[in-house]
Amino acid sequence: MESSDALSSLGMKFAIVGTVGWVISAGLTAAIAGDINNGGLYGGSLGINQFSGIMWSLGFLLVFNRYIWKGNYINQKLPT
After folding, report:
1. How many other CB atoms sit within 10 Å of the CB of residue 11?
2. Global pTM?
3. What pLDDT does 78 receive?
């Protein structure tokens, strides 16, 4: 296993955590829309959404870097 494979595996975990956080944030937003008394959930929803966005972005970056470091992305010929 190379270092790029380990980073790609870690990146997938980050992306999964980001996706799960996004789903939870969407659920909290739907709960806010369902009842006006649930307005206090907005802060939690916003925090989870921002954290999830950062985690997903880092995960995508790590997975994409695996392809760059292994040479699978740059060395492919473009279709003409």
Report:
1. 20
2. 0.73
3. 54
